[in-house]
Amino acid sequence: MKKDIILSGVGGQGILTIAATIGTASLMEGLQLKQAEVHGMSQRGGDVQSHLRLSSEPIASDLIPEGKADMIISVEPLESLRYFNMLNTKTGWLVTSMNPFNNIADYPPLESVLNEIWKLPRYVTIDAEQVAKDQGSIKAANIVVLGAASLFLELKYESLQKAIEQMFAKKGKDMVTLNLKALKAGREYAEKKT
Amino acid sequence: MQKLLLLGDEAIAQGAVDAGISGVYAYPGTPSTEITEYIQGLKQAKEDNIRSFWSANEKTAMESAIGMSYAGKRALVCMKHVGLNVAADAFINSAITGANGGLVVLSADDPSMHSSQNEQDSRFYGKFAQIPTLEPSNQQEAYNMTRYGFELSEKYGVPVMLRITTRLAHSRAGVERTKPKAQNKMRLPSDPKQYILLPAIARKQYNSLLGKQIAFEQDSFESGNNLYIDGTDKSKGIIACGIAYNYLIENFENQKVPYPVVKISQYPVPRELINKLCESVSEVFVLEDGYPIIEELLRGMLNKGKKVRGRLDGTVPRAGELNPKIVAQALGLEFSEGFDIPEVLTGRPPKLCDGCSHTDSFLALNEALKTYSKGRVFSDIGCYTLSALKPLEAINSCVDMGASITMAIGASDAGLIPSVAAIGDSTFTHSGITGLLDAVNNNSPITILIMDNSTTGMTGGQKSSALGKVDDIVKGVGVSEKHIRVIKPLRRTHEENVKVFEEELKYEGVSVIIARRECIQTMARRMKEIARLKREKEQVNS
Questions:
Q1: Cβ(B324)–Cβ(B251) under 8 Å?
Q2: ipTM > 0.90 for the complex
Q3: Which residues of A touch B351 (CB under 8 A)?
């Protein structure tokens, strides 16, 4: 098993939470992993990305080679475009939220952003904020995206559930329940759409 | 022992704790900050009484570590690459004094300048100081080599440098620990004059350091940190330093590299390995994440020997960090490509947070400066450097920690009156105080804006050495109390703040305007922590 995943979004949108959830689940399944994060200056409302690599074999590079990513998981549509060059053209999936994070003056029309995504051979676009709201809070939008992506991760769904329970335990029972619901709703959306 | 999922930084921290350090000394700086933070949060470190609070700057950190080593205990000192410039005087001389307790100097480089103003290579400093330097290629090696660094330091009685780059610092992987070592007992140097670098003693000490060079190289040869891995195809030979080795291996997808490879993780580089490689192959490729240090040595000034390929002949780009594709291209290997990046994509540069106090400070300053010609604001290093970008476009320089005040002095001496300095509270205590003293002694016609957000913001909100002390320091250095003005940077206080700036800009002497409002990120974290403690208390009570 080998999965190379690019996570993308804007600083503060919770991509490191997604990375940590997948990472925790992978460890439960005895996989090796490497995860390159972005810290420092770019976290201030700029673009952020993380390279997450899972494998049953030892992993050499902390960075995924260009054109080799099995997935891009993005919590922001414009940000997903930034890593098109990383995606495997033959097998790669793009899973992204459709909700723009508009903190720049020249944000292109959303339609033209989505049109670029919809030209790809394999994608899931999801209104993660609405789905999260339906489950109780917009805060869980990142986990909705993770739920949709979980369909292609080749990790056991139960491992992801356990990882969420473990990770959100500190924040109280309500947060655990909310995020489990968000995970499920995202998953079900992707199942229907593919 | 159990396997931990750790950042490269955290692996170093855990390695140092397990190596039996008694203290870590550091000033925050991306990508090195997480080392000290990890130790600050570690239960084991608290139980073992390992001191870990932040130093005022890298120089004070380095000197404190030398002091701990003098007293016989092990010390780790951490900084980002440009921090080593600040600590350089102490660092270079620590090689002359030598180490008593183990002393490891960690410098985290930032090729591609993700969060820095240059991409200098700390291995140069290791060579400059003539001490052993370690460069791990992955998280497990980061742990192991930190431990090895302390052994090496005590074995030869010298400080040891540990060099990493951003990619390793901020990437996670599983790390296996080995049995922790106890801390040293206090034990002063057997030679009571060892640390007195008077010329006569320094000459003796320097000769002793020079005498150890052969042993350092021999250690590099025998330690197992440098490997010769033979290959059947002798058309190429490859020297891969530190993390560059991973990118090489990645290109062969965990299969054996067909060419002979020398993996370098300890310096000085053992000539025996390099010679063996050069003797057996047609050309040598050098892969280094940083400056072309080994490459330059191999080429020599005349480049008349074996053909050497790397950054200097354009085989590898001259600047920036390596990645698997760059290595593939350099070696003429096949590489994959993804989809084209759509043209509609726009950049998303970092910016000041909504509600940031710096925005209000600069809005007021910009307005007060409207009647003057442009180009008079010397800034410093911190979040507020982002005010260079739209919409504020408020500053005209950012060079090094503390340079705002001193550059304003020089510019005003040249006739640019008034000149303005803009500096944060943490940067002020890092390197601004001595500059302020110069300004007072020079009676410079400058206005200094100290943006006191009561934290070290850019690196994630570490405790600022200036906390609660800025006013007294400014007074103590000798600024006239009449020209020390404290404002609260907010939208609703904008008009009165503009007035304060206008008044002080007119004054032809040193004035200091302290704009005080807590960083909103630090405040949010503080509030969260209070809420958490409250929740816990309620749970106990119920």
A1: yes
A2: yes
A3: 44-46, 103
